């Protein structure tokens, strides 16, 4: 019966959610109606919950980015908390049309089963830099709490390149050097997508059109790498979670060169694809990169009312 009920609700919500024309600012479906649909869907699912009280819930928190900013580490650390239920995979609901067109019922089906007292969290790093996403998230839940983890923009560019480079290497495909992407006609190639993803103030402005800063907590990704516990404490407070994560949950793995997690006596580290060494870059080119981000960083600091220890 619960399965039939979910299917019916998914169909109704899907019909309501699919845009009839390309989205423009203010052109998404009426927000009050969509919020009501989301609430109704959640109530119906609770009625069909499992005997132990667990059910799938729409996320109350989303890690929106940034790509190569440390989103996986943040999610794994947050999952140490007993009151957090995290979606295992990146859902890409709000940024991929083939997913978004399937409606909130489909989105709900991607969430983990959780107890009523638990907070459901999903992370999709591409959300931060996708223009349509802020309005769509706001339409679903204007009170949602958002987590954004950022690193030094120059370092993030190098990590971005490194990930794509290794993906090609694993498939035995050649891939150009980072200099070929960063330099064009003797100048910094400002059309390189990885550079655009690091222009944080541009993307943040889009999010602030729909959410106030009190709804967005910015995690310092560089500090999370060096000393994770204080940053996770701030996240707990922002999400109004009881302080359950302790310093003893983290230990530095000298072999890997970064912090790993200790949970109920079980040790675990991030996948080997995390923490890879960046390519060697000519110091002069690195300086150009730092100079390029100097003004954009200042604009971002002014936008969010805080500074970060970036080049």
UniProtKB/TrEMBL annotation:
Residues given in the record as 3'-phosphoadenylyl sulfate binding sites: 68-72, 151, 159, 259, 274-278
Annotated S-S bridges? 260-269
Q: What class of enzyme is it?
A: transferase
What cellular component terms from Gene Ontology apply here? Golgi lumen
Q: Which residues form a coiled coil?
A: none
Localization, UniProt: Golgi apparatus lumen
Q: Which SUPFAM superfamilies match?
A: P-loop containing nucleoside triphosphate hydrolases
Q: Might you give the EC number(s) for this enzyme?
A: 2.8.2.-
Q: Which UniProt keywords apply?
A: Disulfide bond, Glycoprotein, Golgi apparatus, Signal, Transferase
Residue span(s) of domain Sulfotransferase: 59-298
Its biological purpose is as follows:
Sulfotransferase that utilizes 3'-phospho-5'-adenylyl sulfate (PAPS) to catalyze the transfer of a sulfo group to position 3 of glucosamine residues in heparan. Catalyzes the rate limiting step in the biosynthesis of heparan sulfate (HSact). This modification is a crucial step in the biosynthesis of anticoagulant heparan sulfate as it completes the structure of the antithrombin pentasaccharide binding site.
Q: Tell me the protein family, please.
A: Belongs to the sulfotransferase 1 family.
Q: What is this protein called?
A: Sulfotransferase
What organism is the protein native to?
Tursiops truncatus (Atlantic bottle-nosed dolphin)
